[in-house]
Structure prediction request, 355 residues.
Amino acid sequence: MAGFGKPMITSLKLESFRLFTGLEIAPLQRINLFAGPNNTGKTGILEALCLLFGGHEQLLLLPSAFRSAPSTAPGQNAGDDFAAFWQALFFDRQTQTPALIYARTGPDRMPHCRLQSLPDGRLWLFYEELDGSGRIADPARRIRNLRPPPSFTISSNGVAAHGPNPFAATFIALSTRLEPPARDADLYNQVTMLEDGEEKLLGLLREIDPRLRKLRYAKAPGTDQPLVYAHFNLKNALSLTQTGQGFSRLFSLYCQMLVSQAQVLLIDDIENGFHYETLPQIWKGIATLAATENIQVFATTHSRECIAAAHDAMKALPGSDFALHRLQRVNGQLQAVTHGQAMLQAALQSGPEAG
Prediction:
C-alpha cells in the first residue's frame, strides 16, 4: 500500500490548528471514538487526518467532506471556500502562525505537514518526514536544496499540486450526507465480484434488519440507470433509495470498507440516522470489517448511547483495540483524555456526560 503502509497511526499532535493551540492524542487504537461537548474540535481532528494523509483529490473535497460547503450557497463563489474554510484552519484565524500536524506511524516514522500563509495571500501546505526524535529525517536534502518538499498551494482559484503527498493513504471519509444512488450501485456491483463479498455484506446488514433476504443490482423498466434493490420478505423488491436513511448509509459504509482497500475510515457523527438500539450491531460490523480489511477507524459522536454501544460491542469481540478520546477544556485549553476499555467501563458505570 501507498502512504504510511500497514502500521497504524499511534499518536496525533496538532499545533495552532482549528481550536487547538496544542493537542496530543495518544495512544490511538484500531478503533477510535472522539467525544466531547459541542465546538471542541472533534470534526477538526478528522480534517487534520485528511490534510496529513490526503492527496490532491481529497484536498479539493475537504471543505465539504464533513461540513456544509460554503460555495453551495446562492451568490457565493470559490473564494468563499478559501475564506470560510481554509483560513479557519489556523487557530483563531491567525494566519501568521503556521498550523502543524504530526502523526506517529512507527518508532522512527513521524509524518508531518505544515500549513502556512504566503506573502501573496495563498496558503502553502507541505510535507516532511521526521525521525523518532522529531527531527527532519533527511536534513541533507534541505541543506543541499536538492528539491522542495512535496506540497500544495491553496487559493481562491483552487488547490495546485507540487509533487504528490508522500504520506498519501487510501481512506474513506463518511459524512452525514448519503452517497448518490448510482455510486452505491457501483459499489455493490464491486462487492459481488469479491469472493464471499455478497455473503459478508448480507450477514452484516441482517444484523440490522433480519427481514433482509437478498440484494440485487438491476435496472428496472422505465429507469435510466441500475440501482440496488432489497428483498424484505415482500412480494416486490424495494429500491435502496426508498429504505431508511440509516440503512442506506450503513450499506454504503460496509460496501466501501469491503472494496476500497482503505487504510483509514473517518466518520463524523457516527450515530446520525441510526436508532440507538442498533448501535451495538453497527459497531460490531464496523469493528469486524476493520479487523479483516486492516482499516483504522476514527469516528466522532455526541451520544452517550453511542459510547456505551461501542464499548459493549468491543467487549464482545476478542482482541478488539478500542479507545475513547474525550475532548474537554482545562484552564481554557482543549485537552484529550484517552479511556481504554477498562477505564471506560468504570467511567460509564459512574455516569459521565458524553456530549
User: Anything to note?
Assistant: The chain has a mean pLDDT of 86.
